Each structure stands twice: as structure tokens, then as C-alpha cells.
Amino acid sequence: MAHTIFTKIVQGEIPCYKIAENDDFLAFLDINPLAEGHTLVIPKLEIDYIFDIEDALYKDLFLFAKKIAPAIKAVIPCKRIGVAVIGLEVPHAHIHLVPINGIYDIDFKKPKIALTDHQFENIAKDIREHIEI
Ligand code: 5GP
Q1: pLDDT tens digit string along 30-74?
Q2: Out of 94, 96, 118, 130, which one is annotated catalytic?
Q3: Is the pLDDT of residue 109 over 90?
Q4: β-sheet bridge partners, residue 7
Q5: Are the C-beta atoms of residues 21 and 132 closer than 8 Å to each other?
Q6: Rounded distance, CA 8 to CA 15, Å?
Q7: Is residue 46 part of a domain?
Q8: Which ligand 1 atom lies nearest to the CA of residue 32?
Q9: What pLDDT does 22 receive?
Q10: Which structural domain, as residue segments, surrounds residue 106?
Q11: Is 125 inside a domain boundary?
Q12: How many angstroms is it from 77 CA to the middle of ligand 1?
């Protein structure tokens, strides 16, 4: 079975700007972000639809995201960390964590921002330094 691009990231076949991981979950920067600090939180287990995840793992996925969000907020000035689950592009469950100041900031139709490799690296490093897991 062909693996999803996110499984390839989990397995280290494709690089990512890592924010945090444990045995079950991985958080990394979205490569095509709506805002600086836009982060994806995924289960390492390859499951397409988030509501197909069994209860314990589903709950732990959101608890893992809950640890990541304050670290993003500490680094990226914003009113809130918006939470979205779309899943139409990559068939591997993931939670979007997006720094927002208003509703438009989490409109997935709006143009994405372009960041350099250096900027991604710095944002990821700053967020990592604020994570308490
Ligand atoms: P969705 O499936 O929720 O509609 O969107 C998938 C998200 O994954 C998009 O925001 C897209 O930018 C992101 N994405 C797709 N491929 C990659 C990748 O290879 N690396 C990273 N870091 N993000 C990706």
C-alpha cells in the first residue's frame, strides 16, 4: 500500500520542520501556511478520516495538540490559535493549528504565505523552545 505523504514524513523519508513528537503523534509546520506558525498535528498511525480514529487515540491527539497550541501562541502574536480539520488534500488525519486575529485568517481559500527555509527553521526552533510536554 502506498503511504501518505505524512507517513513518509513520520518515517523520515520526507523532511519537515518538526515542532514535537512522541510515540504516537507528530507536530510539524504546514509547508503551505495560512500564517507563520501554522502547524499540523497528526497521529503517526495512518488513518484517513479523523472521526475513524478510535476513542483513546482521538482524545490523545487533541491533548497533544493542546500542548502545542500555547507554544505557537507564545511565539506568534495572535488573539487565538484557531483549530481546523479539513482533510480534503492529504488522506491522513491532521489538525490544523493556525494563529488567528480574525475569521479571515483561517479561511483556507485565502492566499498562502511564502516563507524561506531559514524562516521555517527559525519559527520551528522558537516554537520548540516553548513546548512543555
Ligand atoms: P487538508 O488535507 O487539511 O485539506 O490540507 C493538507 C495540508 O497539508 C495543507 O495545508 C498543505 O499545505 C499541507 N501539506 C501538504 N503536503 C505537505 C508536505 O509535504 N509537508 C507539509 N509540511 N505540509 C504539507
Answers
A1: 999 999 999 999 999 999 999 999 999 999 999 999 999 999 999
A2: 94
A3: yes
A4: none
A5: no
A6: 9
A7: yes
A8: 12
A9: 97
A10: 1-56+76-89+102-110
A11: no
A12: 23
Average pLDDT, the chain: 97
Tell me the CATH number at 47: 3.30.428.10
Q: Is the pLDDT score of 2 beyond 90?
A: no
Using 50, 70 and 90 to split pLDDT, how confident is the model at 132?
Answer: confident
To 10 degrees, what angle do helices 55-75 and 117-129 make?
A: 110
4 C-alpha to ligand 1 centroid (Å) = 11
CA 86 – ligand 1 centroid, Å: 10
Check if the beta carbon of residue 100 is closer than 8 Å to that of residue 21: no
Kindly state whether residue 16 falls inside one of the protein's structural domains. yes
Q: Best mutation site among 32, 41, 112 for ligand 1, i.e. most ligand atoms within 8 A of its Cβ?
A: 32
Query: Is the predicted pLDDT of residue 1 greater than 80, yes or no?
Result: no
Is 118 assigned a catalytic role? Answer: no
| Atom nearest to 89 CA in ligand 1 | 2
Asked whether residue 15 is assigned to any structural domain, the reply reads yes
How many structural domains is the chain composed of? 1
Report yes or no: 9 and 26 within 8 Å, Cβ to Cβ. Answer: yes
Atom of ligand 1 nearest to the CA of 16: 22
